[in-house]
Amino acid sequence: MNEVIELLQSHRSIRKFTDQKIPRDLFLELIRAGQSAATSNHVQAYSIIHVRNQANREKIAELAGGQKYIADCSDFLVFCGDMKRPTDSAERAGADVIRGMTEQFLVASVDTALMAQNVVIAAESAGLGICYIGGIRNNPAEISELLKLPEHVFPVFGLCLGYPDQDPNVKPRLPVESILKEDYYREDEAMVDGFDETMRDYYGQRTGGTKDTNWSKQLSPLFNAKLRPHMREFLVKRGFELK
């Protein structure tokens, strides 16, 4: 163990922030740390919208499902997959560019996630708290219009940054033996059953015994209905034909 590993293993999502603002110099260093993440073929297929307009933040909070900490945190970012910049640049350099490929969508999504996680680690190392906001995909078209995103740019998730005003417990993760497969895939139902009991205890302690559920039950809303079925049509309209 070292300080970096300890930091990574102590991650919590923060949903309540103080009024203290992140200094601009520190904020920019966090973004530069993000840029140091691995990127496929040095494409750097991401852009970040730093949403400073308070009315826009409040609108995004509403569109993302009423998550008020979007409006309350020191800084709110929308991380976007951006294939416009690299494809436009290649085209200006003389390439006969083909747009809308599924691989381009995957590269942009992966690059964006890697970049954001670097920002998160840097932020937490400086004593800040973070909360990813996947809820912006509830209404991606409206958010794209609000942020004036061009074709071939799409919002992947948001990120709240600020100084924590709460100290939640670290949420348990699946046993490493469950997700680490040696040589080939193995089923792990017994480990999941054990993890369900761990999570039942966690939720009970966190809510003073008012929440009786587990990991498997918490997954139900994700899979008992079509989750965000609008996303494919939205991505096609963004120029990602998924060819």
UniProtKB/TrEMBL annotation:
The keyword Oxidoreductase applies. One of its GO terms (molecular function) is oxidoreductase activity. Residues 9-163 form the Nitroreductase domain. Keywords: Flavoprotein, FMN, NADP, Oxidoreductase. The keyword Oxidoreductase applies. InterPro entries: Flavin_OxRdtase_Frp, Nitroreductase, Nitroreductase-like. It comes from the Bacteria. Belongs to the flavin oxidoreductase frp family. This is Nitroreductase. It comes from Marinobacter daqiaonensis.
